[in-house]
Design a protein that fits this description.
mainly alpha, 96 residues, single chain
């Protein structure tokens, strides 16, 4: 479920102390579900962005002479504001 060691420690301490951590477990799980939903939305935005890039780059390569540079990566700096910023979409994500 993705519980951290710290979260598991907290839950087990309550349980071992005679408490009932069920509400906390539910709360943590709801938070993780919300976070997962946000990550999925971001991944879908990135997927749409990359599909658009692939379409554009296929056209660009089709117009580029064999052996010539198409400058695909350079074209990322010239992206219109209608598409997500490439640097934001390709940043490494923190692991939780």
């Amino acid at each position: 479920m993705g519980f951290t060691l710290s979260e598991l420690s907290e839950i087990l301490k309550v349980r071992d102390g005679g408490g009932v951590p069920c509400h906390r477990v539910l709360s943590l799980t709801e938070e993780k579900l919300h976070s997962l939903e946000e990550q999925i939305k971001e991944l879908r935005r990135t997927q749409r962005y990359m599909k658009e890039l692939v379409r554009e780059w296929r056209v660009k390569l089709g117009r580029t002479k064999t052996g010539a540079k198409a400058m695909l990566l350079h074209s990322l700096a010239d992206r219109p504001n209608g598409l997500p910023n490439s640097r934001g979409n390709f940043r490494r994500r923190k692991r939780s």
